[in-house]
Please model this.
Amino acid sequence: AMSEQWDVGRALALSGLFRLLQGAGRACAAPFLTLYLRHLGLPAPLVGVVAGAKHLAAALWAPLCSRCPKGRRKRRLLVASSLLGSAGASLLLTLIPPADGDAGYKYCNASQQLGDRGAAAATVPGPGTSSHVSAVTNAKATREPEMPAPYSPPLRGLKKETSGLGSAAIDLAGNAEESLYPTESNELSLFKTTLPTAGGSYESGNLSDHRKDAQGVSFEAVQNIFQDREHQIFLMVLGAVVLWELLATSLEWTVDENLYEYLDFVDATDRYGKLWIWSYLGASVGACSIAVFVDQLNCFLSSTITRLAVHFYGYALLITLSLLVSVFFPIHVPKRTDHVNKTAKALALLWSDGRAILYAITVFLTGAAGSAVQNFLFWQMQDRGSSELYMGLSVAVGLLAEILLYFFKGKLLRTFSSVKIVAVSLSLLAVQLLCYSFLWTAWSVLLVQILSAFSSGALWWVVNMTVDDIATPGMERSLHAVLQSLCYGGGASLGSFAGGFVVKHFGLAVLYRAWCVCLVLWLFLILIVQSKLPRQKKINYSRLLAADSSDMSDSDEENERDWLVKAMKDESFN
Model:
C-alpha cells in the first residue's frame, strides 16, 4: 500500500497527461479570445480592457489561492468544481449575441462571403425597405471611425451588399432608430435644466430643482450606457472572462501546488522542472487541431453563433477529459503549514538585489510588449486574408521553438553570460515587433515566431537562474510566482489596457513600433546599469548540499572537501 501511495512515476505520468490536456484546452480558446470578441463587434479599446482585466484577475487571485482547503476531500472537490466551473464559464461566452448583426460577415474569408452573398441574393428587398437600408448605412457610417484604418474589413462593397438585405436590415434599422430617441430625450432634459422659469417660485426652489434635475440627468446617462447594445455585450463578456480566469487560476494553482508538495515529501522535486514541456506540447497540438477543424466550418453555426464558438466547445471538452484524470491524482497535505506572507518576503528579496530589480523591470516590459502580439496579431493576420490554420501554426511554432532550444540550455548558459543572453532576447523581441508592424503576408508570421525561442524562452532561463541565486530556502517558488505576476499580471494587463486605445487612434503598426523603440531603449539602459553594478559571487548552499558526492573523482575528493571553508572565506571578502 505504501509503495502504491508514494508511486512517483505514476504521479508524474498523471501530471504530464493532465498538463497535456490542460495545455491543449487553453490553446484551443485563449489565443483566439480577442478574435472572437472582434466577431462579437467589440472595438479595440474594449477588447483591450477585457484582456487586461483577464490578466489582472489572474495575478491578484493567485496569492489568495494559498488559502485553499487543506483536507484531501476538500482539495479534490475544489479541483473538480474549478474544472467544471471553468468549462461552464467558457461556454457562457458562446451564448452572448453579437453587438452588430453583420459583425461576423465582415471577417469571413472571401470564398465564404461569396457563398453567403449568393444565398442571400435569393431574398430581394422590397421598395419599402429602401429607407431602412439608408438608415443602416448611415448608422454604420457613424460607427466606422471606431475601427482603426489597418482593420478596415476586406471586400467593403460586398459587405454593404450583404448587410442591407432582408429582414436583418429592418431589425438593424429599427435598433438604429430606437437608439436615437434616448439621445434626443437626453438633450431635451439637459436643455430644460439650463432654462429657468420666470417668477418667484424659481428663486425659492432653485437649489432643490437643480439637484433633482442633475440626479435625473446622471441617472439617465448611466441608464443609457447600460442600455447601449455595445456596452451590454462588453459587460457580459467582461463578467464571463473574469469568472473563467478566476476558476482556471484556482485550478492550475491547486493542482500545481499539490504535485509540488507531493514530490517535496518524497524528495523528488528535481523531476518537477520539466513538466512544462507537456503543457507546451498539448498547446501546440490543440491550437493546430482546433484551427484545422474550424476552417472547415461555415461562418455561422446558427443565426447568432459564429464558428469561432467551436474554440470554446473544444476547451470545454478537453477540460472535461482532464477531470477524469484528476480523479486519480495522489493528494498529499503537509502537516506543517506556514502562515508567513511569502509574497512580501519575495518582494523584499527582489528589492535587495540590483540585478533582480533590472530583470523584474525587464519581464514587466516584455509582458506589456507581448500583450500587443497576443491581443491583436490575429486581427492583423485576418486582415491579410489568413486562415485559422496559420494562426494555430503560429502558436505551435513559437512553443515548439522554445522546447527545442531548451535542450541546448546548459551549453548556452555556460558559453554566454547572463547579460548577453538578456541582450539577445530583448533584441529579438524588438525585431519580432518590427516585423509584425511590416507584416506582408500571413505565412510570414511563422518565420518571425521562431524567434520566440530566444525572446521568451532564453530570457526566462536567466531570470530563473537569478532567482535561484538570491532565494533563501523555501522562497524559490514564491519568487518565481512574483515575477510571473509582474510579467503576465502587471505588464500584460497594463499593455492590454493601453494597447487597445493606441490601436484605435493610431493603428496597430504604431503600437508595435512604439514597443520596439521602448525595448531598444531599455536594452541600452540595462547594459549601462549592469556594468555599474558591483560583481558579487553568491553561493547557493542548498545546491551544493544537494550535489551527489558520488560524482566526485578520487583525485578531486581532497580538493573539494574544504568547499565550506572556501565559501566562508569568499563571503568574508565580499
In short: The longest helix spans residues 229-265.
